[in-house]
Every structure is written in structure tokens, then in C-alpha cells.
């Protein structure tokens, strides 16, 4: 059944601008053939599909015994192949508004450090989703080479939700086609409580031994608080640390010891990072966040610290806000910045800047910075600088930074993905920024940033820099109470 429509009538019916209808027709989203008198001919099924999408009852209906059925459409060799373009009910097609409001201005592509690699272009991805080219998008590696850094969204004049689309594409890929290391991390975490499958007994022994060494070296009386019921704060762990660099755990422990904090680590399901957000597995993401709530309830804690990784904080808070909003009244989530500043303001710790005489800079993490600003209403920019500068005498900012910061190149799971060359290429801007700043000590609040800067960009671009976590810097600048009291 074929009907003739006028663009302005259809626009009025669906409550959109007539240009929107023309865009749909031109793109093939609404298959139609131009007819006489500025009218278009559309199939009833396409019209019905449009009504279903907008939740509307069709204004017109096919007549049961319509004898005028199926006049042949005028042949138009240049018409878009609507079958190939797919239906606009396809899963990746989120809302017509996305492609309608996108100006194709290219600002996103201009800002994206990986744009052009393997023909990646955010504009193209938006158009392809709009055109229903789901299969092509799901098969492409673009969403996995994208680090979900959000730089494109910051510059977009129309506030197009590009990351939402990237996440949707990741989430719809078959699980056996997700980059293997990421998928393995998710599955292992679900099965064993941490991404690397570290057995409970090994974890406990390691924590105890590290605690004993710390007590002997610098924190007399220190005992690693494992499963302490009633401790104020639950502290999660990034499995990379006990696995590859266990001593790095003790930077925080020194600070807790100095501040007299009441804290604990759970012996089970202690993983802090949430790779469900990388793989697009929302069910896994939810489960991992729920486990943190379970640990908090089991140990009767009232606060949560997710140290060591910007995405641990972002992913967990995102999950809690979406699936467990009531939990946000149950306990307080600290970022590393909130907690360290609280200690300083309450004079629970004292810092000396003189132990660091190198020129220091702070590397903004996309997750703690612009993504937290956009998603939670606050990005941690000034707090990070205030803490860093409390521990050093010479400081320089990178240009640009804060909300306009460039990603290091290892976010969004890129450190664990197979696209190593793209990761390094992505990081070239950050490497140039650091080099031009003259900084020799780079402070960061994210494990992925630290790995990328220290182990990859440092070597690839001959940066000759040292990289430290913010809490390592703070722990090294701690002044003992008796020293702090001296005039
Ligand atoms: S910056 Fe925004 S409006 Fe411009 S092309 Fe990219 S998504 Fe479209
Ligand atoms: S999120 Fe970052 S990497 Fe991904 S398209 Fe946007 S700017 Fe490029």
C-alpha cells in the first residue's frame, strides 16, 4: 500500500521540523520517492514503523480491499538502497534527534586524537547509526580504539551524546568478539571476585606481609586491617597492584596510618575497577557495584574509597546512581581528592613541599575530570592541583588541561586492548604537552594513565620523566607529627 504525503503535514503529525522529515527521506531513514506536486510516496509499512517508533496511532490505515494497491514506484537509479540501510528500529539507532542536531561541523573529529586512524570519525559513526548500519558498526573496531575520553563531547556545539553511542555499540557486540583481555577480566572478576583471579589466601598472605614490612620500616604498630567490622571506610583494590606492584598499596596505608583512619579491605570481592564499563556489559557492571554494597553492609562501613583509578570511581558511581541510588544515602563515596583534602583541612596530616625539587605537573584523568563534571556535576581539577602543589615547590600546568585535557591514550580499556599502535599514537599529544612543559615529575590519579605515561609514552617519545600517583607524592611528603610541631 502506497500513500502520498506532504512533508509539512507529516512534520506536524510527528511534532518535528519539516527539515527533519526531509533528512529522514534523504538519508533513507524514511524510504520515500518524490512524486508530483512536492509530494512523496511512502509505503504504508514504513509509515506504520514510524508511528510505532514515536508511539503514535497511524493517522491513516490501509483499506482492506483497496483496488488501487501497488502502483509501481518511479524508477530512480540514485535512490538509496533502503534494504541495505536497515530499519530505523535497529538497536543502535537511539533517537532521530542525534543525527538531526549534529551539524556535521567536524569539531568532534578535530578534537579527537585518534580521528582519522582506521578512518575513525565520530561524525561518520553517528551517521552510520542513523542509517541503521548496525552490522558495520558492530564489526568495526572504532568503538574499541576510542578511549571514551569525552574530548569530542566537550567541543560539540550541539551536545551530541557521542560516548553514549560508543558504549551502546560496545555493549551490543557478541561477547566472544570483545577484545579478549577485557572480556577475560570481566569474566574472571565475576567468577573469582577480582580481574586477575588472585586466590583469597594468596591475597590475605600478601596483605599481611606488606603490613608487617610497613610496621617495621615506618609505621610502628601497623596491622593490615582485613575484614574489620565497624571500620569507617571500605577501601577497594585494583588487582594490578597486588599482582604486579604490591608495594604501591602501601602509599595509601602510610597516609591512613598518619591520619589515624579507621579503614578496612574486604578479603572477598575486593576488586575496585569495573571492566563492565569497558566491555559494555551492563549486567556485569551492576553485579560488581552490588558486591561493593554487600561488602559495605557486611562490614558495617559508612564510607567508600575507590583509589588507584579514575574509571573505578566513575564506573562505580555511575552504577550506583543508576541501579542503587538508595545506597548513596547509606554511605559516602570519597574520591582520592576529597579524602586527602579532608585530612589536610582537619590537620590529620601535614605535608612538606621541600622533598620534591623537580618541576612537577599534574595529568588530568578524563574520568575524574571532564567526565565526572558532565555526569556527576563536578570535575576534580583544582583539588588535584592544590594537593600536588602542597607537595612540591615548582609546578607547571599542561596546555590545554582541566576540562580540555587530552587523554593519555590508555583509557576506555585501551591499555588492555590489542590496539597498541593506536594507543601510542593517541598519546602523542599528551607526550608533546609534557615535553613542552619541561616537567620531569608527572603526577596522576589513574592507574591506566600511570602505565601509559611511565611504561609506554616515556619510552616511545624519550620523555625522561618520572611518574607518581598523587598518593605516592603525598605519602612521600608526609611530615611526622613531632616534626610538624617544631617551630
Ligand atoms: S561536534 Fe557535534 S555537531 Fe559537530 S560533527 Fe561532531 S557530533 Fe556533530
Ligand atoms: S571519546 Fe575521545 S577517542 Fe572517542 S571519539 Fe571522542 S575524542 Fe575520540
- Computed CA radius of gyration, to the nearest angstrom: 27 Å
Main sheet attributes: strand count, strand direction, barrel closure: 4 strands, parallel
Question: How would the global form be characterised?
Answer: elongated
> Helix/strand/pairing class, anyone?
alpha/beta
Distance between the termini: 92 Å
CATH class division of the largest domain: Mainly Alpha
Report the bound ligands by name, code or SMILES. Answer: iron/sulfur cluster
Strand content: 5-15%
Mean pLDDT: 88
Tally the helices: 26
Written account of the structure:
By secondary structure, the chain is an alpha/beta fold. The chain has four domains: 2-83, Multidrug-efflux Transporter Regulator, Chain: A, Domain 2, CATH 1.10.1660; 96-173, no CATH class; 195-334, Glutathione S-transferase Yfyf (Class Pi), Chain A, domain 2, CATH 1.20.1050; 353-477, Rossmann fold, CATH 3.40.50. Helices cover 48% and strands 8% of the residues. It has helices at 7-14, 18-27, 44-54, 82-85, 96-101, 107-111, 122-130, 134-139, 142-145, 151-155, 162-172, 180-192, 200-217, 240-244, 249-259, 276-279, 282-299, 310-323, 336-345, 367-376, 382-389, 420-426, 428-437, 447-460, 470-477, 481-485, and strands at residues 2-6, 32-34, 39-43, 233-235, 263-264, 303-305, 332-334, 359-363, 394-395, 441-444, 466-469. It has a four-stranded parallel beta sheet with strand order 5-4-6-7. Strand 6, helix 18 (310-323) and strand 7 (332-334) form a beta-alpha-beta unit. The longest helix has 18 residues, at 200-217. The model is unreliable at 65-88 (pLDDT under 50). Bound molecules: iron/sulfur cluster (2 copies). Residues 102-108, 122-123, 126, 155-158, 160, 162 line the site of one iron/sulfur cluster.
Amino acid at each position: 500500500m502506497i500513500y502520498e504525503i506532504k512533508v509539512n503535514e507529516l512534520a506536524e503529525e510527528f511534532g518535528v521540523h519539516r527539515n527533519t522529515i526531509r533528512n529522514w527521506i534523504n538519508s533513507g531513514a524514511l524510504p520515500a520517492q518524490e512524486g508530483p506536486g512536492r509530494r512523496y510516496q511512502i509505503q504504508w509499512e514504513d509509515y506504520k514503523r514510524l508511528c510505532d517508533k514515536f508511539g503514535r496511532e497511524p493517522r491513516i490505515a490501509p483499506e482492506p480491499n483497496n483496488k488501487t494497491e501497488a502502483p509501481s514506484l518511479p524508477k530512480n537509479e540514485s535512490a538509496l538502497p533502503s534494504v541495505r540501510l536497515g530499519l530505523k528500529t535497529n538497536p543502535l539507532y537511539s533517537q532521530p534527534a542525534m543525527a538531526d542536531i549534529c551539524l556535521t561541523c567536524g569539531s568532534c573529529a578535530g578534537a579527537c586524537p585518534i580521528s582519522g586512524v582506521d578512518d575513525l570519525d565520530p561524525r561518520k559513526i553517528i551517521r552510520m547509526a542513523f542509517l541503521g548500519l548496525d552490522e558495520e558498526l558492530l564489526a568495526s573496531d572504532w568503538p574499541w580504539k576510542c578511549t571514551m575520553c569525552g574530548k569530542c563531547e566537550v567541543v560539540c556545539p550541539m551536545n551530541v551524546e557521542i560516548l553514549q553511542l560508543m558504549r551502546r555499540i560496545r555493549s551490543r557486540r557478541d561477547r566472544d568478539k570483545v577484545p579478549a583481555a577485557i572480556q577475560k577480566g570481566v569474566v574472571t572478576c565475576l567468577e573469582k571476585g577480582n580481574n586477575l583471579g588472585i586466590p583469597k589466601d594468596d591475597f590475605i598472605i600478601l596483605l599481611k606481609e606488606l603490613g608487617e614490612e610497613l610496621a617495621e620500616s615506618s609505621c610502628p604498630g601497623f596491622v593490615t586491617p582485613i575484614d574489620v567490622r565497624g571500620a569507617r571506610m571500605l577501601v577497594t583494590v585494583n588487582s594490578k597492584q597486588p599482582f604486579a606492584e604490591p608495594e604501591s598499596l602501601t602509599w595509601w596505608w602510610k597516609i591512613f596510618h598518619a591520619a589515624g583512619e579507621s579503614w578496612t579491605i574486604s578479603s572477598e570481592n575486593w576488586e575496585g575497577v569495573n571492566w563492565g564499563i569497558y566491555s559494555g556489559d551492563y549486567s556485569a557492571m551492576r553485579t560488581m557495584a552490588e558486591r561493593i554494597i554487600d561488602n559495605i553492609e557486611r562490614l558495617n562501613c559508612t564510607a567508600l574509597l575507590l583509589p588507584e583509578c579514575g574509571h573505578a570511581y566513575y564506573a562505580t558511581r555511575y552504577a550506583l546512581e543508576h541501579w542503587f541510588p538508595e545506597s548513596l544515602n547509606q554511605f559516602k563515596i570519597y574520591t582520592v581528592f576529597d579524602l586527602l583534602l579532608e585530612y589536610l583541612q582537619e590537620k590529620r596530616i601535614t605535608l612538606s613541599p621541600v622533598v620534591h625539587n623537580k618541576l612537577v605537573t599534574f595529568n588530568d584523568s578524563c574520568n575524574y575530570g571532564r567526565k565526572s563534571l558532565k555526569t556527576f556535576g563536578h570535575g576534580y581539577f583544582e583539588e588535584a592541583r592544590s594537593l600536588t602543589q602542597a607537595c612540591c615547590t615548582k609546578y607547571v600546568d599542561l596546555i590545554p588541561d582541566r576540562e580540555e585535557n587530552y587523554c593519555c591514550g590508555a583509557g576506555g580499556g585501551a591499555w588492555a586492548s590489542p590496539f597498541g599502535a593506536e594507543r601510542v599514537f593517541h598519546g602523542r599529544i599528551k607526550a608533546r604537552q609534557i615535553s613542552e612543559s619541561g616537567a620531569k615529575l608527572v603526577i596522576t590519579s589513574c592507574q591506566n594513565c600511570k602505565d601509559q605515561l611511565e611504561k609506554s609514552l616515556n619510552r616511545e617519545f624519550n620523555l625522561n620523566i618520572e611518574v607518581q600517583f598523587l598518593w605516592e607524592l603525598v605519602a612521600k611528603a608526609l611530615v611526622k607529627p613531632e616534626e610538624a610541631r617544631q617551630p
